[in-house]
């Protein structure tokens, strides 16, 4: 596919394949969602319907699921192409690692057919052995992106585990909403902690295509701008996702500027207790 707009923001995590998961229910919800995204500058969308890793171990079931998802995505892509011709609409999956040894060899599971694969673990709880699981995926030739790590329960206590994920070569994607408290104070504090370490590679909406939900892109941008970190936002939402679509590794994001003063130290203390 031709890249239509290299200056636009790229959203690499959403649920806009109609009727296949808990995201957008039908074409009209998809079109409404895409309209909202274009109004806030997102014209490149890599949508990521849920798929269970265990399904990848059953070739017949996997084929049925991927065929359904692809057909629904094609219908959505046609409708988007008619109504929003400047929008690029690609597809990946968000793979729920309910088994440690999911087979990621089918390109339809990965991000727009690249070597990148978006993964998550069940029930927002980290199982044991995450480093080994990520390492095995990488040894198979794929590049795992851990979706919204800030949302896992107990992440505060296991925070240093993230450095081991990164050492083996995994990447991280935080949600826009996490920066503004959409998932609570702990997820928010963890998201900033990850950003301060320079451990975040991508930021995305995880938008589920319902009218009552917010996308939070502009709110997240404003939060980072207030910290003097517009450049971080651009790398995570423009540069790195654009590189992903070319199957290129992300660039290191600049670190958030250090906070100074009593209230900054107070907030940092509070955050480390919350996280
Ligand atoms: Fe998601």
Content-based structural category: alpha/beta
- CATH architecture assignment name: Alpha-Beta Barrel
Question: How would you describe the shape?
Answer: globular
| Unreliable sequence segments | none
CATH topology, anyone?
Answer: TIM Barrel
Number of helices: 9
Mean of the pLDDT scores?
92
Helix content: 40-55%
Biggest beta sheet attributes: 6 strands, parallel
According to CATH, what is the class?
A: Alpha Beta
* Largest beta sheet: strand ordering: 3-5-6-7-8-9
Q: What's the structural blueprint in terms of helices and strands?
A:
Blueprint: E1 9-11, H1 27-39, E2 42-47, E3 50-52, H2 59-83, E4 88-91, E5 94-96, E6 116-120, H3 130-139, E7 143-147, H4 161-168, E8 171-175, H5 176-179, H6 185-197, E9 202-204, H7 217-226, H8 230-245, H9 261-274
Parallel strand pairs: 1-2, 2-4, 3-5, 5-6, 6-7, 7-8, 8-9
Overview of this protein structure:
The model has no long low-confidence stretch (mean pLDDT 92). The protein is globular and about 50 Å long. The chain has 9 helices and 9 strands. It has one domain: TIM Barrel (Alpha-Beta Barrel), CATH 3.20.20.140. Strands 3-5-6-7-8-9 form a 6-stranded parallel beta sheet. Strands 1-2-4 form a 3-stranded parallel beta sheet. The protein is 41% helix and 13% strand. The protein has helices spanning 27-39, 59-83, 130-139, 161-168, 176-179, 185-197, 217-226, 230-245, 261-274, and strands at 9-11, 42-47, 50-52, 88-91, 94-96, 116-120, 143-147, 171-175, 202-204. Helix 1 links the parallel strand 1 and strand 2. The chain is α/β, with parallel strands linked by helices. Bound molecules: fe (ii) ion (FE2). Fe (ii) ion binds at residues 13, 15, 94, 147, 206.
